[in-house]
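# step 3/5: fold
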Amino acid sequence: MEEFYRLRRLPPYVFAVVNELKYAARHRGEDIIDFGMGNPDQPTPQHIVDKMVAAVHDSRNHRYSLSVGIGGLRKAICAYYKRRFDVDLDPVSEAIVTIGSKEGFSHLAFAMTQPGDTILVPNPTYPIHVYSFVLAGADILHVPLNQPMDFFEGLKKAMESAWPRPKAVVVNFPSNPTAMVVDLEFYERMVQFAEEYNIYVISDIAYSEICFDGYRSPSMLQVKGAKKRVIEFYTLSKTYNMPGWRVGFALGNPTLVRALARIKSYLDYGMFQPIQIASTVALNGPQDCVDEIRLLYQSRRDVLVEGLNRAGWEVDLPLASMFVWAKIPEPFVKMGSLEFAKRLLKEAKVAVSPGIGFGQYGDGFVRIALIENEHRTRQAVRSIKRFLNAGADVAA
């Protein structure tokens, strides 16, 4: 069988190993508690659904739409950024609608890079941050992400040692998978870094509204002069429980927005127009639903983290995102994250994502998504406790 060029650049999909075991277990009738994929389990708020239904009944909305997104939706996201971050954006030149942030991220990579370009990417990170550029033919410099300031220093070392100089750097806070957060000062330093080294910054803030304990995630576009270097991706998936609707945005630098718009004009006609109309209502309408979603994740986080710590698995309390980034318990460290995830699935009937799937520096961790209700989460904690007590001697 012929192996195509771009497919040769993709490594085996680590998550598929756990997924296959999970599906096989369910086929045998086993009850698997699934913390693997960051897939919100709650319904989209009713007022958004109602607008979608009404828009579907208008046959004018059944025609081709615009690849850059309808004007009303672009105005709505710019108005949202003004209210939320006090950032002024031009809906024509500095905002574009994408079919989810993954599509926008991938097409931007194709638009802005050529074979031989180098991109700086955190490690661990969400796979699309790496493989969108790999598929576009770029080379990747992985920068370890342990703490925000360590990451910043790693970027400086990479820039000083790399030739030709990297073209762009990817940042993602609140981070998927680590749930790491930053403040506006960090973003100010990133913009200064980009200016000093003449490099673009691609910021992904998909989890900016899922924040806890008084933390409020900033936008890099709040930094004065950021639009000269920065493009930022935002999505409705987590904020409004709309993952399957596939509504995202790219905002900021006009050159990159224009490049993305041009390549999208060849590749798609935008999403179904009723989805865009309903998304406009999501952004412009009442925001109490966002608070309810945030509080739901906070409650689940508390149940999970408190339960795991009582069970003997020391886990930090994340300030944001819908994930817990958990270091593998000491007796199991040597087996690595993939084998640990496989054993957790087999013996505790709990599915998690192995950290190695997010990069080599994630191998000592697993990602646990807050997508099960509190009853199921407590059930999982009890199973994990039995697994830890029974398996420690074997692992050693």
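# step 4/5: annotate
The chain has two domains: 5-44+289-395, 60-284.
# step 5/5: archive (pending)
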